[in-house]
Structures are given as structure tokens and as C-alpha cells.
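seq as requested:
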Amino acid sequence: MENTPPDCPPPGSPGTRGRVLVVDDDPTVAEVVVGYLHRAGYAVEQADDGPAALARFAAHRPDLVVLDLMLPAMDGFEVCRRMREHGPVPVIMLTARGDEEDRILGLETGADDYVTKPFSPRELVLRVDSVLRRARAAAPADGTGPLSGGGLSLDPASRQATRDGRGLALTLREFDLLAFLLRHPGKAFGREELMREVWGWDFGDLSTVTVHIRRLRGKVEDDPARPRLIRTVWGVGYRLDLAPESPGTEARPPAASAGPPSGGRAR
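C-alpha cells:
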């Protein structure tokens, strides 16, 4: 992990861009992360274990949490769960492990993004910027109102979503992903395109999109193993069908294009 301070001047005085809580028991990592975020214009609080993080979270609700997975006394998964009990808050999870199951569990716990150690602090700041931009976009810039179709209803202004009248507990990214698909029903998107349009990234691990699609299916499909709404388009990516055909049948392009979704195998 690089630890040289940025050469560029900060975009504003510390605190002008929001409050971030950094939770990491490694003092070297915490010092570097706090320093970069401070220089980028964020007010930063720090905790080195789960109980301390929850106490700071309760005392001063942050705009975003950078949360290490491996913590003493209480791991990052449990800390994230307990924070989520008090309402949505953007969480970027740090993990020293590259194991896919850890990344998946972190995202399914409610994390909006993850960064694997060792990492570039500059990239982490960009991720913080990106997640906060999405969190603060209570309504789309083009003024689009409520969205509906296939039994789904989303209100971007209130960030509320329902399926057949039943409330859906969606994370920040899940809501944005479903809203994007509802704005473009019947159109197939590759994972690279979804990452660019929904996450605002031109880089990143495409499995992030796969995990969010899988988790979203678990919340909006009657049978997530045989999706009827969010369908896999082999060789392309994913598509939202508001008037689906028989369950479990995946949309396939011409034979010459058959294969897994863009960027990796389908899940």
C-alpha cells in the first residue's frame, strides 16, 4: 500500500465533504487512510475495534464508514449488521483476504463496496467519493419520478422500494441497480456497462456486479434460482423482463454469441 501523501492540494477544508468513520485495528493502515481522507476534505473519526466503532457511530452518525473485516472483539460483519439496524449508511469494507466468499459475505451483510488489502489510498478515496455521490443522489439528475413494472415500485426521491406492495430492504447499490434496470426494461447490459452506469467506475472487480445481481434476485424474485425478472443474457450480461416468459429459461443470443455474461461466468 502506498503511503506517500497526495501531491495535489485538498479540494476544501477538512469536513467540507462529509464525515467518515474509519475502523481498523492496524495503526499504520488507519493513519494512512485517515490522512488521505483528511487531505481530500473529509472530517474523519477513528476507532480500532467493533465496540468503539459502534459507540462513535451512535454518538456522531457518519456519512460513510470505512470498515476493516478483521477486528478484535467483534468482526466487521457484525459491526456492519449492527450499524444497518439503525438505518442505511454507506459502508466500504476493507479485507486482507482476497477470498471471494469474504467479499460476497461483506456485500450481502450490507457493505456497498469492498477494497482488498494491500490497496492504494488514492483508490480508496475515489471509492469513498463514488459511494457518497450515489448516497447523496436522492433523486436522479434528470428528474425521473417513481418507477414501476413487473410488480416492482421504486420512488427515487424517498429511496423506497416495494414488490407487490411489500417493502424491500435494499442497500444503496441494490436500489441504484434496480432503478437503472427499471429505467431500461428489456435491454441487456454487460457487467462492465452496469459498473460504469450504476457504480460510476471505469475500473473494478466485475464480481461486485455479479454479487449484487444475485442478492437483488434474492429480494425481488419468487424463486431466485429460476429468475423471471432479472434474467441472464448469455454472452452479454443481464436484462430486466417486466413481462417474463416461463421461469428458469435464460435468454440466449444467436448461437455464435453463446457464452457466459461479459467479464466472467454467470451466477
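The first strand starts at residue 19 and ends at 23.
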